[in-house]
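Quick start: read one record
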Amino acid sequence: MGQRVGLEVSLACSEAAKLANVDVIAAYPITPQTHIVEHLSELVADGDLDAEFVPVESEHTAMSACVGSSAAGARTFTSTASQGLALMHEILFIASALRLPIVMAVANRSLSGPISIWNDHSDIMAERDIGWIQYFAENGQEVLDLTLAAFKIAEDKRVLLPVAVNLDGFVLTHVIEPIEMPDQSEVDAYLPSFEPQQKLDIAHPISMGMVGMPEVYTEAKKACLDALEKSYSVIREHWDGFAKQFGRQYKPIESYKTEGADVLFVTMGSLGETCMTAVDEMRAQGLKVGQVRIRMWRPFPADDFMAAIKGAKSLVVMDRALQPGAVSGPVATELKSLLYDKGQSIFVSNFVIGLGGRDVTRADFANMAKKTMEAQSAGKEIACEMWGVKE
């Protein structure tokens, strides 16, 4: 049996990679993910993890090395944040196009400028179309669990796609939380050894990443799109398997006190727990509010989301990134498009919150709910309001 330990969340992520018996780690230090790769380098140097730790000169090279190692048949892990993720941009598309099951932890941090080392989701929202499976953790336990599950999902023969596990920088990465740490034997029972479907081998040479002429390019992209969309059912299957093995269940969309709620907050990441507390307080005051948390971002679980919001009169959608020049933030844009496609006319207010690590309090959630209800009654729209802007 495992044991409960007090552990910094970054180190819990590292320990998950260790429990997964990764073969190669290629990464470059960048705040706030540095502790993840520092700890992994220590584990390798001390002989506690039999893996190759590849020190590189940039995040672009880190992802390039990950592509090479995964293509050679190695279980591969990396982590990054913010400008580091942006520097990987070119190679991220190649990893998914080559169907390489790389697992990457993204310690979400603001993109410059101005320079900010603090948390929001602008880094991953700028990469939402890279063809990777992407999901979000809310606390340290989820970081460990979802990282372990990521290897199982990525390496499944029906998927073979890279996975990005998002955890909020500083808000999660640098805090110590109680973590249920599984035994190696338990993880081994859940996660089998990596068996690559095709790999670079000088004894049996193949070609990867060839030029795609116009006659085949569209079909190649369609194949990747189909693979990402079909991964949904496999993700559900392996999260259910994780629950059977370890007793903790994860779902693409998770709800909190939505029964009878007229107003639903929509959140992603660690602020969801603050929102839950705010919902408790508002419920105690007799307000019919609830919460829907988006766990799986890509592929987007449209049917799960529609089922979760059934009966609600309005949605308070939280974006933690800007989409400059657009009508709404990236999450609100996604949801408005979905509601239109489904023929639903639910009132949607969109607030951009927590940019650059700015605090979002329980009172802020209460005030956003109040403002949403007032706007709906008055027939006014709230589209991409930057919450808490100082005059």
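The mean pLDDT is 97.
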